[in-house]
Amino acid sequence: MLRLIALRLAMSVPVVLVVVTLVFLLVRLTGDPATVLAGDLASPEVVAAITAQLGLDKPLLHQYGIWILDLLRGDFGVSIASHQSVIGEIAGRLEPTLVLAAASIIVTVALAVPMGVIAARRHNSWADRLLMLFSVLGFSIPGFVLAYIFILCFSLWLDLLPVQGYVSPFDDPWGSLRHLVLPTLTLSVFFMSLIARVARASILEILSEDFVRTARAKGVPERVILWKHALRNAAIPIVTVIGIGIGMLISGVVVTESVFNLPGVGRLTIDAILARDYPVVQGVIIFFSLAYVSVNLLIDIAYILIDPRIRY
Questions:
Q1: Number of domains the chain is built from
Q2: Of 85, 103, 134, at which residue does a domain stop?
């Protein structure tokens, strides 16, 4: 078990290195950061001064070496806009993003898996068709459109929930819950549609297996067959799609935080792009990439825990 986890950790290192290299190259291939920061009307002297200040006057390979060494020391650079460290900027925005992501994952898994089980149990019934309709709508409606629909219905028409803003759950749990409902629903709908459909298809496949028919012939209650036998054997594809969905969730955080004005890492990304603050852009891309690699590592570990027969 520990050897397999260590192997997966070692396999993640090249992935992280490739991501870091791509981030370094993309920022420089999209244009000269010094020219972008100086503006179109800046004199060559101003551009040259900014180039020297950012270390962009050195050869590309030299810049890359400095970039890697700084990352190994935990130095992601300094924000051009705020003159604060990039790590400090990300850390200051981390709580809203983590709270929103955790709430979305909990709500999605808690609702989507039972929906898939019920739809598989009542195949071709009204419940199954209702789930399919929900899944089609969830896949079809863009997240930002869904966010404005929720704002229109629950905030403007019914006046039940706040439109935007963030309240820390450590300061005011009830206020935090009210502010998180709409962003969480916005992020969860697409994720929920995906997991529910996969859970339904996987459980339907398991229910046609011989061991399920044998269990029914022995008089095992249908509830036990569904939740103990079918769901457990269908867990691998469900866990896989949960991991994929978390990757989509990371990208959805950027749009959702912008719509609901949440001061998280997603909003920081948009602000950094608009301000042309390329050190912060680099930092948040690496942060999201490392988060996705970590999620994949946890999913691989979950495979081993769910089915000990799995070996890499």
A1: 2
A2: 85
Alpha-carbon gap, residue 278 to 217, rounded angstroms: 65
The Cα 286–Cα 261 span in angstroms is 23
Residue 49 shares a structural domain with residue 179: no
Give me the helices (H) in 30-92, please: 33-38, 44-53, 60-72, 86-92
Which range has the worst mean pLDDT, 28-32, 95-99, 199-203, 231-235?
28-32
Question: Which domain does 170 fall in, by range?
Answer: 94-263
Q: Is residue 113 part of a domain?
A: yes
Query: What's the rounded Cα separation, in Å, for the pair 4 and 309?
Result: 13
Q: pLDDT of 164-190, one tens digit each?
A: 888 888 888 898 899 999 999 998 888
Task: Report phi then psi at 78, rounded to 5.
Answer: -120, 135
Residue-by-residue DSSP string for 157-217: IS--S-SS----TTT-HHHHHHHHHHHHHHHHHHHHHHHHHHHHHHHHHHHTSHHHHHHHH
Task: Label residue 279 left, alpha or beta by phi (over 0 means left) and psi (-120 to 50 means alpha).
Answer: alpha
What distance in Å separates the CA atoms of residue 270 and residue 255, rounded to the nearest whole number?
A: 9
